[in-house]
Write a structure and sequence with these properties.
The protein has about 110 residues and is of the alpha+beta class. Helix content is about 15%, strand content about 30%.
Length: about 110
């Protein structure tokens, strides 16, 4: 059956968890979000130290970070040391972001 063929074709992929580079130049990433705007293919990557970077994964690896969406490094407490859980911890886009431009952030200060 078609399902059995698909499962057999994927079998090699199920034996391991594989990672690939997403972008270069990102420090302490905590997560990523999309804006929810139809047609907007940007990915927003949250850095613990207080920046939200714009990433375009259609570009070559070294050019994927295309800009800084938000920088609140001067408001965020984060040492950048391993184990420090303070910093910019989350980002959410307002449901009406395309019209009002509002975002919500969670950070330690």
């Amino acid at each position: 059956t078609k399902t059995a063929e698909n499962q057999e074709a994927l079998k090699g992929d199920l034996d391991c968890l594989c990672f690939r580079p997403f972008a270069e130049g990102i420090a302490s990433p905590l997560g990523s979000r999309v804006s929810g705007i139809p047609g907007d293919k940007r990915v927003f990557v949250i850095e613990q130290r207080g920046r939200v970077l714009i990433v375009d994964d259609s570009k070559p690896l070294a050019e994927r970070v295309t800009g800084v969406f938000m920088n609140i490094q001067n408001k965020v407490v984060s040492t950048g040391r391993a184990g420090d859980e303070r910093g910019l911890l989350g980002l959410a886009f307002h449901p009406n972001f395309s019209k009002n431009g509002k975002v919500y952030v969670c950070y330690s200060h």
